[in-house]
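R.M. (postdoc): so does anyone remember the format we settled on? I'll just put the structure tokens first.
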């Protein structure tokens, strides 16, 4: 674990350099969404993470074919990623698109949208950062809606989706739901 942390810290230092703000996609899969985002927003530093090395490899190939110098993909777990960010670095947009819904009740503890994750994310977010969440799983959406609306570090906002580019899961879904939340400012 110590070696994984050290490697991730080194990768993040190399990616972030002197930039402190970035757009983050958690669970980037093969990188379709974030590649399109980075292409449309060339001034934004974009970082996508995923647990599966084969998905990250495919995303990196996609980035290389597109010649996008503002886009990076890393193999990392979300909490480990947050724990190893350089101290002045923070995301200003977080996209969580069609995450594993962990549908069985006994597995709900594995859902990424939970109070602990939201607190950790808020500590690494710019003031007013946006969290974009989209799922085709009704139960997960309602759970996320409840957790976010009652969390002291986040508030739901009624505004348009940050960037539209259909993901593979979105194109397969007969319907889906989305929400946008804003990070609260610093607390006294």
């Amino acid at each position: 674990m110590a070696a994984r942390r050290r490697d991730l810290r080194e990768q993040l230092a190399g990616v972030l350099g002197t930039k402190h703000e970035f757009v983050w996609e958690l669970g980037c899969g093969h990188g379709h969404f974030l590649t399109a985002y980075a292409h449309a927003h060339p001034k934004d530093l974009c970082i996508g993470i995923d647990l599966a090395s084969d998905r990250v490899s495919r995303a990196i190939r996609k980035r290389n074919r597109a010649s996008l110098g503002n886009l990076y993909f890393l193999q990392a777990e979300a909490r480990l990623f947050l724990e190893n960010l350089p101290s002045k670095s923070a995301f200003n947009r977080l996209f969580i698109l069609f995450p594993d819904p962990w549908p069985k009740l006994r597995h709900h503890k594995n859902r990424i949208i939970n109070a602990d994750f939201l607190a950790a994310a808020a500590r690494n977010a710019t003031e007013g950062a946006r969290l974009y969440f989209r799922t085709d799983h009704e139960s997960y959406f309602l759970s996320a809606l409840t957790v976010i609306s009652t969390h002291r570090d986040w508030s739901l906002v009624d505004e348009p989706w940050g960037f539209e580019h259909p993901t593979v899961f979105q194109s397969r879904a007969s319907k889906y739901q989305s929400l946008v939340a804003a990070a609260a400012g610093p607390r006294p």
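R.M.: ...and that's the designed sequence above, right after the tokens. Also worth knowing: The first strand starts at residue 21 and ends at 26. The helical segments are 2-16, 32-40, 53-66, 78-83, 115-123, 138-149, 168-172.
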